[in-house]
Write a structure and sequence with these properties.
Elements lengths: L1 H8 L5 H11 L1 H5 L10 H17 L8 H8 L4 H17 L31 H9 L10 H6 L13
Helix pairs in contact: 1-2
Length: 164
């Protein structure tokens, strides 16, 4: 709605002016709290990205270009890219104690002493360790096998993978 109002209110059709107005008035609404609420379902991501896709398509002379070409011409990042950047920034802030959050609650530091000029190497836990933490010892080893993941776990729509 806000993006549509920008196109109605401005008589000028300068791409730079309209893009700045979009970035000032609309994008903060789309990016609000994306660190704590990060959409994971494809339908949610598509709906959020559709706002920017629709706005860029309505700019004069850009309607026939692909979405990625329009973003490149306007020097904009996709909203998915923005969410990744804000997630990385939040991780950095947590690791450097710039927040009130304890880094040990979120990350496990690696015990390897040799890193490439960085003492903040993080350990990557295995899937089994994560499942054991969530499920306890009741989680059988068979639930983390590749076959179980492909055939036994429900996908985003609630149906079993591999079935209809």
């Amino acid at each position: 709605m806000h993006a549509k109002l920008i196109l109605k209110c401005f008589q000028a059709r300068d791409h730079l002016l309209l893009t700045k107005a979009f970035c000032v008035f609309v994008r903060p609404l789309l990016e609000y709290c994306c660190v704590s609420w990060n959409p994971v379902y494809k339908q949610d991501i598509t709906k959020i990205e559709a706002v920017q896709r629709r706005f860029t398509k309505r700019l004069s002379g850009l309607w026939n270009l692909s979405y990625s070409s329009r973003l490149a011409r306007l020097s904009l990042d996709g909203l998915h890219c923005i969410r990744i950047k804000t997630d990385l920034l939040m991780c950095y802030m947590i690791l450097r104690n710039h927040t009130c959050l304890n880094p040990d609650d979120f990350f496990t530091r690696s015990t390897i002493n040799f890193t490439r000029g960085n003492a903040m190497k993080l350990a990557k836990p295995s899937v089994l360790c994560v499942l054991r933490t969530i499920c306890g010892d009741a989680c059988p080893i068979s639930c983390v096998s590749a076959e179980a993941c492909l055939t036994g776990w429900p996908n985003a729509r609630g149906r079993r993978n591999g079935g209809s």
